Amino acid sequence: MLTPLAAALLVLPASPAPRLPPPRPGPSRRARPAVVRAAALRALPRRLELWSPRLAAVESNPPPPSSASPAPDEERAGSGLDARAGGGDGGGDGGGGSDLGWLRAFPHVLTASMANFLFGYHIGVMNGPIEDIATELGFQGNPFLQGLVVSIFIVGAFFGSLGSSALVDKFGCKRTLQIDSIPLIIGALLSAQADSLDDMLLGRFLVGIGIGVNTVLVPLYISEVAPTKYRGTLGTLSQIGTCLGIIAALSLGIPSESDPHWWRTMLYAACVPGVLIVAGMQFAVESPRWLAKAGRFDDARKVVESLWEPSEVEKSMEEIKAVVVNDDSRGSWSDLLVEPHNRVALIGGSLFFLQQFAGINGVLYFSSLTFRDVGITSGALASLYVGITNFGGALVASNLMDKQGRKKLLIGSYLGMAFAMFLIVYGISFPLDEGVAHSLSIAGTLLYIFTFALGAGPVTGIIIPELSSARTRSKVMGFSFTVHWICNFLVGLYFLELVNKFGVGAVYAGFGGVSLLTAVFAYNFIAETKGRSLEEIEMSLSTTTPGKQE
Description:
550 residues, mainly alpha, Growth Hormone, Chain: A, 21 helices, 2 strands, transport, Sugar/inositol_transpt, transmembrane
């Protein structure tokens, strides 16, 4: 059974992304809620058509400037960490030096991203010692049970994703991250001390539940805590954390090739990040959006003041208040069946469906055999090469996310993945010198991993919470990741069977075709969110906004 490595962690120019309108500063903080809401809604004269950016946009005439809605500011430009200009939520120094505005949010985002480090670690921890575990626990020679030890992790993650929304809505992101560390720590301890198959399965299942919650929670938390200007760049930290976790597990697993009991040390080590998350999140901030939904506006203001540029605090708080006042009801799963939430949920589920069936799991599984053909017989070493490539792609993505935008990276990523797949198919299917064919396979595999890490990996997790409303964000994320784990499981279950029936070339050609299809999907249905606050995006997408103006 395959490990869920597709969640680990890609630029070609694409069509201009639909732009949300520049915001108008809101009224003074002493304005009545109705005036706040009206001013904020009037600041967004164009409603974004989510299904197809090329369709006619629905426009409304902006009201003339008044005391409650002054003239628009200059449009803010998104930038990476090395930007020089100020502006945006939590912009930099606004001068000619380095922009260090991202440092305010970085410790909080980094702490949360440790949960993704654990995710990557638990992906890689079974890569090498599974045979030793099977021998010691008495199920060696049984590929079904070996696969079950790995795949039970995915089953737990499925249930964790389903239950994540209720936890986040009730306890908030900060407390949920701490609570969720409990099954991660207990599961790692049970697995490390396992004396039977049942103990190992229970431990892996508990770890899976914790990972399922975290994969939903971390990108959601980062999207709500990070200032707009740096949201994309900081959002890639969750993917970088996953890559580092995989590399750490593979590196720590090297002694397992000579020590058959080393796997227990590796699983004990998995407890340490869980303890650090519990301690670290005690000093991290809570999401200001969740605090506002809970009616704790003073606490939300304190968080915004600590993370945002001082000149942006008033406007950001007015936008957050406008969304909360405009829709103060608690979201439910049935909301995903009505506009506009059903469109966002469908797009989120589709992105993860297409991501998994573009073949990331299959490529990662088959990569060890590809490296073996060129003389790299160590599976752990081959996986380490793949992990380092993945990490390099994620670093590049972090620098480009707030410069090029999400849509360009997503399209370019899938086009690169398609090219890589067809390059491998060419090397496999056509009569070439054996050395040339192996070189094409290696180059195609590494190119596929690198381009996946540029967009298909990180952008998918970043853009879904950005497009979701405050009311349904946790549920849209929970639904989307549930689709992810189901597809992850299915690809792992049937990949080898498809290879045996149709051959590697045909299967990889199918992966390339899905990658091309996903690039077309992103071109037509994904809106650019770079440089816009979550509240701007939400009010622009809301089909009920015009009717609620006062």
